[in-house]
Amino acid sequence: MKTIDIIIEYINDKTSTYKILREYTPLSLSEIKSRIENHDAVIAVNDLKLDELKKVREIIRSLNNIGTEVVIQDVTGTITLKTLENIISSYEDIAADTEKLDALMFSDEQ
């Protein structure tokens, strides 16, 4: 499974950062701290699941709002939040096109 990984680069407000990460991950506080110290991914999501990608985008925005800097990585290496947003937008467009095609295909059967 290919993933989008979130690595914490810099923490401005530790308490708020840990609170956000605990809210969105099943990891314990000690596991979160360990992964941050080792520069390991604190969050990894399937890069083909739109709902998971949207969740990650929300987490990144929340962390950025409190001054925490993150690194976003996929199979190609480090990507930007803008790239992640483009991936999400592409998947949303594909889903919308699929719904339109389904509607056209199944409207003929009635």
From TrEMBL:
GO terms for cellular component: ribosome. The keyword Ribonucleoprotein applies. Keywords: Ribonucleoprotein, Ribosomal protein. This is 50S ribosomal protein L7/L12. It comes from Neisseria macacae ATCC 33926.
